[in-house]
């Protein structure tokens, strides 16, 4: 069984720098083969190029271990071109953070990026942070996902915590919407996965905000063995291979 | 020793407290500040009085381990204040709990101010769900804390996952606000511990009752991950709660 961490952040997070090498050591200690790596909040919001260069560089150095998620703030006039260029350089996912980037996914701010990807044949999973604020609710993401049914969307953090009740209805609204576990607490995440289908659930540790070893051990302890191959890596790899 | 300062238990069924105490024993938790569940929703099935009476009776089964946080519906105006006063007389209680978004009530309702004053007058803490707009931001609690300096307010979640910086700002500015490490990620909780005086930090599980016990171990595990001086850890997990709720004895104090 291949174990893949569905979302980790590298770079300067707050006052701490988390290097790709440190992340590699952590993955090794946890017995995790690969991880999605994404830019830190300041690079999601503003310094997009710096964040993208960092994840693409790390993935180029360790292509079998890192899955780079690139970004562009949708308010940038050149956002679509920046994302397309990064995907052509090796980016394998798009990461959007509506709260940090200041947009509502239900509205059309990110649509230009997504249309450009479709037109260019660059269909990749789109990871969208969700949370208990007003920009990035699961319902808002579901409306975005319905506008682009060919693109797989990953609901980062599964609306944790106060939108938890919206996760299953949002996934029912959009078949191309998948839920990711970081911050969503393993007990509740597994219960919601049972409701929407374990083939739509993706394990992510949320490193470095969460402790990777603790999150993985807790999830593996609670998750039934029959669902582990899919949730702990298989579902994400399927999306990366272009199979919804 | 551990005090869980944020624990819910349903009050609609059997009032036997033994299942909860068994869970606490299994988790090595000595005492719990207990809030009901049903009272946090609109009062359609029964009034707050009904749920508060059941909660007080539930905790009375084991007062050495359990102490109640009662709740009222602010939109009911004077009736809410009357219910708060009644609970104080009927108690003992350990304070009040408000969940503005579940209860669907703004903290700017007229009854809020009177409840805050009553809580301050009786030295009963007021715990609030926080971290959720538009009714339950940490900064909204800060406004109350500024307006009612005699009253002790508790942020039940310290801003949850995304507003922990706001919670830390509130905690570092207002001496009458406590923060509960409950619902955040360890990265944010660790920084809260650096920014907010240790004597005003608490721990809670936010367990929602039978079937949700795993969350207690999960949230204990998150705090175990924090690099804390032993005296700070003891204060968060035990000492501060015992100081705040002197009526809460806990298993070892019996």
What does this structure look like?
The complex is a heterodimer of chains A (244) and B (254). Chain A has an 8-stranded parallel β-sheet, with helices on both faces. Chain A has a two-stranded antiparallel sheet with strand order 2-3. With 244 residues, chain A is of the alpha/beta class. In chain A, helix 4 packs across helix 6, helix 7 (138-147) packs parallel to helix 8 (164-173) and helix 8 (164-173) packs parallel to helix 9 (186-196). Chain A has helices at 20-30, 41-45, 48-61, 79-88, 98-101, 111-119, 138-147, 164-173, 186-196, 212-222, 228-240; strands at residues 4-9, 11-13, 16-18, 34-38, 66-70, 93-96, 126-129, 153-156, 177-180, 201-202. Chain A has a single domain, classed as TIM Barrel, CATH 3.20.20. The longest helix of chain A is centred in the N-terminal third of the chain and has 14 residues, at 48-61. In chain A, strand 7, helix 7 (138-147) and strand 8 form a beta-alpha-beta unit. Chain B has 254 residues and is of the alpha/beta class. Chain B has 10 helices and 8 strands. Chain B has a 5-stranded parallel β-sheet. A 3-stranded parallel β-sheet of chain B has the order 1-2-3. In chain B, helix 2 packs parallel to helix 3 (78-90) and helix 7 (164-173) runs parallel beside helix 8 (186-195). Chain B starts with a strand and ends in a 10-residue tail after the last helix. The model of chain B has no long low-confidence stretch (mean pLDDT 94). The chains are: A alpha/beta (244), B alpha/beta (254).
């Amino acid at each position: 069984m291949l174990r893949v961490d569905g979302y980790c952040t590298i770079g300067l997070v707050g006052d701490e720098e988390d290097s790709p090498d440190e992340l590699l050591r952590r993955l090794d200690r946890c017995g995790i083969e690969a991880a999605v790596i994404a830019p830190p909040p300041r690079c999601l919001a503003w310094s997009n190029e710096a964040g993208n260069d960092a994840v693409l560089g790390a993935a180029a150095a360790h292509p079998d271990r890192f899955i780079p998620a690139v970004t562009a703030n949708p308010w940038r006039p050149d956002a679509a071109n920046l994302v397309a260029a990064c995907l052509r350089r090796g980016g394998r996912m798009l990461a959007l953070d509506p709260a940090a980037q200041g947009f509502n996914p239900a509205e059309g701010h990110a649509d230009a990026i997504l249309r450009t990807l479709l037109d260019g044949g660059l269909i990749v999973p789109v990871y969208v942070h969700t949370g208990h604020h007003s920009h990035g609710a699961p319902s808002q993401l579901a409306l975005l996902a319905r506008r682009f049914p060919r693109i797989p969307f990953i609901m980062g953090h599964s609306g944790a915590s106060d939108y938890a009740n919206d996760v299953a209805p949002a996934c029912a609204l959009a078949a191309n919407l998948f839920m990711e576990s970081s911050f969503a607490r393993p007990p509740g995440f597994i219960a919601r996965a049972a409701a929407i289908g374990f083939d739509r659930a993706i394990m992510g540790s949320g490193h470095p905000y969460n402790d990777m070893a603790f999150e993985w051990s807790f999830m593996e302890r609670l998750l039934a063995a029959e669902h582990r191959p899919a949730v702990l890596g298989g579902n994400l790899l399927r999306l990366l291979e272009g199979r919804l | 020793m551990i005090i869980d300062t944020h624990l819910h238990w349903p009050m609609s069924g059997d009032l036997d407290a033994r299942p909860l105490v068994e869970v606490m024993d299994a988790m090595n938790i000595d005492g719990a500040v207990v809030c009901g569940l049903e009272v946090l929703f609109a009062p359609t099935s029964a009034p707050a009085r009904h749920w508060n009476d059941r909660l007080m009776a539930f905790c009375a089964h084991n007062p050495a381990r359990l102490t109640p946080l009662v709740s009222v519906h602010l939109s009911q105006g004077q009736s809410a204040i009357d219910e708060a006063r009644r609970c104080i007389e009927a108690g003992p209680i350990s304070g009040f709990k408000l969940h503005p978004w579940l209860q669907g009530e703004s903290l700017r309702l007229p009854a809020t101010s009177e409840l805050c004053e009553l809580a301050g007058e009786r030295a009963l803490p007021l715990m609030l769900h926080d971290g959720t707009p538009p009714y339950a931001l940490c900064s909204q609690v800060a406004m109350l804390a500024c307006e009612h300096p005699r009253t002790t307010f508790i942020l039940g979640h310290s801003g949850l996952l995304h507003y922990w910086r706001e919670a830390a700002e509130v905690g570092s500015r207002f001496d009458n606000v406590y923060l509960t490490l409950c619902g955040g990620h360890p990265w944010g909780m660790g920084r809260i511990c650096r920014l907010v005086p240790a004597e005003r930090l608490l721990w809670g599980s936010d367990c929602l009752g039978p079937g949700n016990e795993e969350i207690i171990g999960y949230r204990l595990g998150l705090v175990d991950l924090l690099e804390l001086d032993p005296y700070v850890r003891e204060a968060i997990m035990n000492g501060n709660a015992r100081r705040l709720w002197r009526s809460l004895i806990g298993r070892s104090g019996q």
